[in-house]
Every structure is written in structure tokens, then in C-alpha cells.
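Hey all, sorry for the wall of text incoming. These are the two entities for the joint prediction.
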Amino acid sequence: DGGITQSPKYLFRKEGQNVTLSCEQNLNHDAMYWYRQDPGQGLRLIYYSQIVNDFQKGDIAEGYSVSREKKESFPLTVTSAQKNPTAFYLCASSTRGPTGAATQYFGPGTRLTVL
Amino acid sequence: AQKVTQAQTEISVVEKEDVTLDCVYETRDTTYYLFWYKQPPSGELVFLIRRNSFDEQNEISGRYSWNFQKSTSSFNFTITASQVVDSAVYFCALSLPGRGGSEKLVFGKGMKLTVNP
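and here's what came out:
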């Protein structure tokens, strides 16, 4: 079954702790993305990666870090520098189709709560 | 800069009613892509449709239809004969061509649809 998996589904963190959210895809997609969703809001881009060992900041990268050591994996670390980390985090991946457009497919999400 | 506006934040209908979700976008680029995603209560975003800026044909897929009008920068989504399973948050999004198969999506704030039995 091809798809995107995220773990854990729910995550609780104490203030001052770093936590890492996992994202894995077996779709053979080149690009991967991390979004943050707050209640009643759309999704905002945190980081994205077009190829292995390369990634770019999105609109709200402060307080977050990523790595892309393997094509299938794009973990996101929420650091203690992120002042308001409680949110729903969604990972996505995409590859360019025959028409030149890329469609992003999403994982099930991780809900992070800071206690 | 790109922007997507979903003016309706929440709609409640009774089953079998038709409902239209509005989406207005802003971009100065001539090549762009428009998307609709569905987010059920489980949280995962489900891809529904992608439209290229050079293809203004309307599309119908079962009970779903999309009306793309470049003249008004709108990409509206209609659900015919709504069902309870259609209850979800619906997002409209816009992207521009990017390098290597990656394109950043700009999302609207979403519209929560509740279909009551």
C-alpha cells in the first residue's frame, strides 16, 4: 500500500523540550513538505524539500528544523525556540506529473500539545 | 503575492440539498494550479481536484462539480444532493510552477460544511 505515514498521532511535550515528528512516504516522491494547522486556519508551510540533502524554509520556519537524509523520510523537530508549538502538523509529498503540475498528497497528521 | 480567499467559514445544510463552496484567488502569474482538498474529522487532507490555469473547462465527478472562471478569478465547488459523509472542512489552494516537482501551496482558511440528516 503506497502512502504517507506520520507518527505519533498524538504527542505531548513539556515546555522547553525538543520533539521530533516522523514522516515517511513510499510513493517514490521527490518533494516533501511540512505544514502547520491552527484551529480555524488554513495550512501554513514550515519547510519543504525538493531532493535528498536539500531543504528550504517556508513561511513559518522559526523554531523548527528538518533533515532529509533519505528520499522516503522528512522528520520535523519542534525546538524549544518555537513559542507556540501546540498545533496540528501535516506532512505531504509530491512529484511532477506528465502535465508538469505537482499534486501534494498528505499524511494523517500529528497533533502536538504543549503542557 | 498569491492569496486564496474562502469567504464562507461555515455552512450547514440538510441532506440532499445542493451546496456551493466559493473560492477566489489572486496571482499575477499566468501559469498556476488550483486545488480543492477535503479534511474530514479524522484530520487527513484528501485531494479532490487540480486545475491548470490554461484549462477553463468545468469538471463533473459524480456529485461533485467545479466551475473555474479566470475572468472572476474564481474556482467554485458544488456538491449536488449532499450527504452526511460530505461533512468536512474544505480547502481551496493555489500553487505556482516550481523546480523539481515541488510547488508551494497557498491555502484558503477553509470552509466547514455540516450536512444534517
